[in-house]
Amino acid sequence: DQPLAAGTNNIGDVDVLSLPAIPAGSNTIGEVTIGAATTAAADLAKAESAVHASGDVGILALAVRDDTPVGLAADGEYIPFTVDALGRLHTTDPNSGSGSPTNPVNNYQTSASLAAGSEVDLDTPEAAAKKLRSVEVWASVAFRARIFTVDNAVESTDPLAVGGGSAHEPYQFVSPHRDYITLGTTAGLDAFRIEVVNLDDNDAADVYATFHYED
């Protein structure tokens, strides 16, 4: 092997394992190939699933500050991590979906003077293909609440959630994921339903429910 001459050198392809000493000065290297990973702590190349050892050396992962995340690459292309002004990595809560909800709906339903021991179904209007995000229920008496879907005017066999509360205590259900509870599109009624039972032995009470859903 011959040492590189001092000055500017253009090198087309270099195998790191056999690279001679680079002299002082400006050296332009067109391509550097890193050899196969080893178990050496100072090896920059780390094999997939290799066990970490104290003192391992690697390349620092840099991120791009992007206070308002935007697309930085096309599908299938490499892209850097992006962080906000405080260095917090931008991530997405799987329950929140990506970005703002599409065509969100807040629907309020109530039933006046539900008799002691009785139950009532509170239904949303037609909501074909909508996704349920959450439901809140309140009553001035103790109550039980069960959530169902209604597809083609037929109630689901089993409830999707069961809850309830003491008098004046609200019950809230939040879907585990935005795609977890989705209605179909049929010729009949497609809606969300909450069945509320008045658990008081003596008093009638008004019950209230609010549904939140989206495309």
Ordered list of secondary-structure elements with their pairings:
Layout: E1 10-11, E2 14-15, E3 28-29, E4 32-33, E5 63-65, E6 81-83, E7 105-114, E8 119-123, E9 131-139, E10 143-151, E11 154-155, E12 161-165, E13 171-174, E14 191-198, E15 205-214
How would you sum up this structure, described in words?
The model has no long low-confidence stretch (mean pLDDT 87). This protein has strands at 10-11, 14-15, 28-29, 32-33, 63-65, 81-83, 105-114, 119-123, 131-139, 143-151, 154-155, 161-165, 171-174, 191-198, 205-214. With 215 residues, it is mainly β. The strands form 5 sheets. Strands 8, 10, 11, 12 and 14 form a 5-stranded antiparallel β-sheet that branches. A 4-stranded antiparallel β-sheet has the order 7-15-9-13, with no helix packed on it. It has a two-stranded parallel sheet with strand order 1-3. It has 3 domains: 1-58, no CATH class; 60-91, no CATH class; 105-214, Jelly Rolls, CATH 2.60.120.
Our count of domains comes out at: 3
Q: Say what the CATH topology of the largest domain is.
A: Jelly Rolls
Structural class category: mainly beta
User: How would you state the average pLDDT, rounded?
Assistant: 87
Return Rg in Å: 31 Å
Number of helices: 0
Order of helices and strands: EEEEEEEEEEEEEEE
